[in-house]
Amino acid sequence: MHARMTTIRTQPGKMEEALVIARDSIAPHAEEQQGFKSLVALTDPESGELVFISLWETAEDLEASENSGYYEEQLGRLSSVLAGQAAREAFEAHILA
User: 72 by DSSP, 3-state: which?
Assistant: First the structure.
């Protein structure tokens, strides 16, 4: 299993809107991607920080989602709520429970 962690900061008062965009627009598109397993959002309402963790079956599936333009397209859906640039990292994931 592999994971991508994307960290963004939302504009003041835009956290809920970002979550709605992720749930209603980004998640359905993610589910159509080969090897996609899950999308989790971690929030810090005080700072406006939002961390998305997407799980992928293989490293190739994760890379394909980036190389195809899919990742940038989905990040673009959040442009109206972003404050600054997104940070992206990839990891090997281990499900423990």
Answer: helix
- Is residue 73 included in any domain, yes or no? yes
From first CA to last CA, the distance across the chain in angstroms is 14
**pTM recorded for the entire structure:** 0.92
Q: Of all helices (H) and strands (E), which one includes residue 21?
A: helix 15-21
How many domains does the chain divide into?
1
What is the identity of the amino acid at 37?
K
Residue 87 lies in a domain: yes
Q: What is the pLDDT of residue 16?
A: 96
Which residues on adjacent β-strands are paired with residue 7?
51, 87
pLDDT of residue 12: 95
